[in-house]
Write a structure and sequence with these properties.
Protein name: Transcriptional attenuator, LytR family
Number of strands: 13
Strand content: 15-25%
Number of domains: 2
Order of helices and strands: HHHEEEEEHHEHEHEEHHHHEHEEEH
Oligomer: single chain
Low-confidence stretches: 1-30, 384-393
Mean pLDDT: 83
Structural class: alpha+beta
Length: 393
């Protein structure tokens, strides 16, 4: 009842404060083709539809109280960060070269301190995007897969391209390797994930002994039947001993050793693509699942714990444009929202995507204007959310 009263009050007062609304609400996207209309516009297999994006200087300011952080993970366990100020890496023959890894994990974390919301928006790795404001554009539209932008142009350009495609200004990013993601999972004490039979079959041949146990407490690598249910991804004492032996035998840089840990197995879970159907769409869902579960583990943290985690992330990433103050500020936002339910969105959503081939690449053609509309509605829900704790009548 109090929430309903608050909503009526907000809607009643809204016309009285046009300046406030104008300064905080994102620009509403223009009406575009419905999914049914869009799919009829197909040209041919090698010619994508022209992609309409928002010019960067026309992007609206970030909504008051909403804080966006782009979380990226490259498809490498260990890899040096891409240096600043370099061109597109190429072979001597002129072809594109994967020097620094492709961002197969792309998730936008939104912390809304005004409406008390935490939102995770994931992007499929092979979505076709328009390369905007790049030197190679030279007057004609250029397209490519979203996961290749970091390797070719850097994380700042990826932030800008994502911003223009979804209509939301994104500036802060943190980029990780697989090993760094695993380290964070291990730092938080592992994670418990509900697995179905297809996922169990996929992991049984990839995870290492001593890192995953089934609902009955049996190691996933042991013989016998392993039922569907909640599995624990956590490094056992036996695996810890094996890791110490491996590290002692490492003659080169021990920091580059990929150990057998629950965190590593959680990364392998997020990487499942060919088992159980769904392909990359289910892969993005698994990434959101692990992030949500890790967020759940943080609900009981003290402020000191939260600051320690922020420091751990700052020390344990491949590349970021966030300094310690930025990280602590983000930790403060997250700490204040730690009791919120995690909301999730996938881009592209159902009906706004179709398989496509472009320049010899398997890609997913996306109805970006429609996705911008959905993103706008998703974030606009913030204005209709009120918590009882915020009201004192």
């Amino acid at each position: 009842m109090r929430k309903l009263f608050a909503l009526i009050l907000v809607l009643t007062l809204l016309p009285l404060i046009p300046v406030f609304a104008e300064n905080t609400a994102p620009a509403e996207p223009s009406v575009t083709l419905s999914p049914e209309e869009w799919v009829k516009q197909h040209v041919d297999e090698n010619t994508p539809l022209s992609i309409e994006v928002v010019p960067y200087d026309e992007l609206p300011p970030v909504v008051e109280g909403q804080h966006h952080y782009l979380l990226l993970c490259i498809d490498q366990w260990v890899r040096d960060a891409r240096p600043d100020g370099i061109g597109v890496p190429k072979y001597a023959t002129g072809g594109r070269k994967d020097m620094y890894g492709n961002t197969d994990g792309i998730v936008l974390l939104t912390l809304d301190t005004r409406a008390h919301r935490i939102m995770l928006t994931s992007f499929i790795r092979d979505a076709l995007i328009k390369k905007t404001n790049l030197e190679e554009s030279s007057g004609e539209d250029k397209y490519g897969r979203i996961n290749r932008v970091y390797n070719d142009y850097g994380p700042e350009v990826l932030c800008r391209i994502i911003s223009q495609h979804i209509g939301v200004r994104v500036e802060k990013y943190i980029l990780f390797t697989f090993k760094q993601i695993a380290n964070i999972v291990d730092y938080l004490g592992g994670v418990e994930i509900e697995l179905n039979e297809a996922e169990i079959a996929a992991l049984k041949y990839t995870v290492l002994r001593g890192t995953v146990t089934d609902p009955n407490g049996h190691d996933l690598q042991s013989g016998g039947h392993h039922p569907a249910g909640v599995y624990t991804f956590k490094t056992t004492e036996w695996a810890e001993k094996q890791n110490r032996v491996t590290e002692a035998n490492q003659k080169d840089d021990a920091s580059k050793v990929v150990k057998r840990t629950g965190g590593c197995s959680a990364v392998l879970y997020m990487r499942i693509r060919k088992f159980g159907g769904g392909g990359d769409f289910m892969r993005t869902q698994r990434a959101r699942t692990v992030l949500s579960l890790l967020a759940d583990k943080c609900r009981t943290m003290t402020w000191e714990d939260a600051k320690a985690l922020a420091n751990n992330i700052l020390e344990n990433n491949n590349k970021t444009n966030m300094n310690l103050d930025d990280m602590i500020q983000a930790a403060e936002y997250a700490f204040s929202l730690r009791q919120c339910t995690i909301e999730e969105l996938r881009i592209p959503m159902e009906g706004a995507v179709r398989s496509h081939h472009y320049a010899g690449m398997a890609t997913q053609e996306v109805n970006w204007p429609y996705c911008r509309e959905q993103m706008y509605d998703y974030l606009q829900n913030s204005f209709l959310v009120a918590d009882d704790d915020d009201l004192d009548f």
